[in-house]
Inverse folding.
């Protein structure tokens, strides 16, 4: 299953890489025909697509490799590097685009064949938009940051191209050629913002920043399958590396259980989490023995050592389960 997912991701990013080469050629042809600075900006940004898709292809192939002695947690983090690399390239291109736009403001040049050029760019909008949407959809389905980043890059490229086509049409109708440079400058600022967003996502992943949505999905799976003998869950930590999910947590179980009973309960807990994630899931569960204070929120009816009557449940939410302490320390008993 995992092997098929990896092959599919590689095919998708290879499609993106090949189409980026084709679309780049079309955009430079449009620039050659029109001498439009806005179209040149779009063409320069498309070169970034080629390098970004190439690096994404490499990162996906590397992230698909199994764990080894040097990489006990797998190779999934390479996808964060891929997104960061793409973001850096986008920001670099944005700088060159803005500089070129300012120079064209200072030194205007005549434009030509705008109708044909805008038609060629319109073709790239349709192709980029379609492939970008598909990559984002598949990337989310397979938990691949590299695919999502490349897809969003293509979508932003398509949106930017729409703006550029609109600017070219405005030049055709108004004859105001400075609109071309203004659109180029706006385009540069827009892709710089997109590049910053990718860099932000990359750094967050490399620094193991908590993903709120991912954590909420794991907590919801635990809540839906909660057993009476899962007395308490705390110190829950969740990280996504490529398609691989890593979870570690503490699970409180009845202290009088045998080692075999605790082992089976932990395995059941792990299976619940694995069944709710499509990729590889690595789970480390530390089993804690219950304490007398746990009786106040423990629903285990046939407990032979209960010291206090059940009073109320504790809400198993993201905040509570992520705390590095047993939940009864936060509860007022009375």
């Amino acid at each position: 299953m995992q092997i098929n997912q990896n092959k599919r991701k590689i095919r998708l990013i290879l499609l993106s890489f090949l189409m980026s080469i084709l679309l780049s050629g079309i955009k430079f042809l449009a620039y050659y025909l029109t001498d439009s600075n806005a179209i040149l900006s779009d063409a320069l940004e498309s070169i970034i697509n080629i390098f970004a898709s190439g690096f994404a292809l490499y990162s996906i192939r590397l992230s698909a490799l199994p764990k080894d002695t040097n990489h006990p947690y797998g190779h999934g983090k390479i996808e964060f590097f891929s997104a960061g690399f793409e973001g850096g390239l986008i920001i670099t291109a944005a700088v060159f685009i803005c500089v070129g736009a300012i120079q064209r403001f200072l030194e205007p040049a005549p434009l030509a064949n705008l109708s044909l050029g805008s038609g060629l760019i319109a073709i790239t909008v349709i192709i980029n938009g379609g492939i970008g949407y598909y990559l984002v959809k598949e990337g989310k389905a397979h938990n691949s940051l590299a695919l999502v980043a490349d897809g969003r890059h293509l979508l932003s490229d398509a949106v930017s191209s729409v703006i550029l086509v609109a600017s070219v049409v405005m030049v055709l109708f108004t004859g105001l050629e400075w609109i071309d440079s203004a659109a180029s400058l706006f385009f540069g600022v827009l892709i710089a913002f997109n590049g910053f967003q990718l860099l932000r996502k990359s750094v967050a992943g490399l620094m193991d920043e908590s993903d709120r949505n991912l954590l909420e999905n794991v907590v919801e799976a635990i809540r839906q399958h909660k057993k009476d003998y899962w007395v308490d869950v705390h110190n829950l930590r969740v990280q996504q590396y490529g398609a691989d999910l890593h979870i570690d947590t503490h699970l409180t179980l009845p202290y009088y259980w045998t080692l075999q009973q605790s082992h089976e309960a932990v395995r059941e807990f792990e299976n619940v989490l694995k069944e709710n994630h499509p990729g590889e899931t690595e789970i480390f569960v530390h089993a804690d023995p219950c304490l007398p204070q746990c009786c106040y929120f423990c629903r285990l009816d046939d407990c032979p050592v209960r010291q206090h009557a059940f009073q109320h449940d504790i809400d198993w939410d993201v905040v509570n389960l992520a705390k590095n302490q047993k939940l009864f320390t936060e509860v007022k008993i009375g």
Remarks:
- The longest strand covers residues 232-241.
- The chain has a mean pLDDT of 82.
- Residues 2-34 form the longest helix (33 residues).
